[in-house]
């Protein structure tokens, strides 16, 4: 009884608010209210995972199979607000929530049977220490929870790279060359892997990681991101 009273008191003083619209959440809602979930700018690329503009974008950089994005990035829109909070406002739980929501969509179309494990584009340890978590890993953990497929940190980042934001496509490719490697603690050979990241712009970072996995004899590497579009 005392615990319930304390929870009610905290909810009164510090009400839970939606990460999308900042309105108060009901008890049955977590990070996003039902209205914001319904208004997420979903791409539906999971319905055409081998035939969309992201597949074309990575063609020639890696061997594309399934390439998907949960949301379409819109400047000043819902996807940008959520990504900003996830990356810079110490809200890793947003990544978990978005991953779970996307996982349910993937499961609805039977894609949960396509993978043996899920992994994410890693952060360099210096950036991880500063942020305290890897936003892409949080997304992967959410998908893992929905699909019942293990999340495994297969990839390590050996070299700290500069931000990619202001770089051209060619500069981004050069910036991530030889940056990533495989964590020798895990078996990659013959595995069907879903590789996730937070955003896709040129695809340089994501395809660099995909190639590391393929060079380690992964059977297949599919790719999924929280958002993609014009940045």
UniProtKB/TrEMBL annotation:
SUPFAM superfamilies recorded: PRTase-like
Matches recorded under Pfam families: Pribosyltran
Start and end residues of each Phosphoribosyltransferase domain: 138-228
Taxonomy, superkingdom: Bacteria
Name the UniProt record assigns to this protein: ComF family protein
Q: What is stated as this protein's family in its record?
A: Belongs to the ComF/GntX family.
């Amino acid at each position: 009884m005392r615990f319930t009273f304390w929870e009610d008191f905290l909810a009164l003083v510090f009400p839970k608010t939606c990460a999308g619209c900042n309105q108060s959440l009901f008890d049955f809602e977590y990070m996003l209210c039902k209205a914001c979930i319904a208004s997420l700018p979903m791409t539906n690329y999971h319905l055409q995972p081998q035939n969309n503009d992201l597949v074309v974008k990575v063609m020639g950089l890696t061997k594309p199979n399934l390439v998907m994005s949960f949301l379409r990035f819109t400047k000043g829109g819902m996807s940008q607000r959520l990504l900003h909070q996830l990356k810079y406002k110490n809200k890793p739980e947003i990544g978990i929530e978005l991953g779970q929501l996307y996982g349910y969509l993937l499961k609805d179309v039977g894609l949960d049977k396509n993978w043996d494990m899920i992994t994410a584009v890693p952060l360099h340890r210096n950036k991880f220490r500063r942020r305290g978590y890897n936003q892409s890993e949080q997304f992967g953990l959410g998908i893992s929870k929905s699909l019942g497929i293990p999340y495994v940190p297969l990839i390590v980042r050996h070299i700290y790279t500069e931000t990619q934001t202001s770089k051209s496509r060619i500069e981004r490719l050069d910036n991530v060359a030889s940056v990533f490697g495989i964590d020798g603690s895990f078996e990659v050979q013959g595995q069907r892997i879903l590789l996730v990241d937070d955003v896709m712009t040129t695809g340089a970072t994501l395809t660099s990681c995909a190639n590391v996995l393929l060079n380690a004899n992964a059977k297949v590497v599919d790719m999924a991101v929280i958002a993609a579009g014009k940045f």
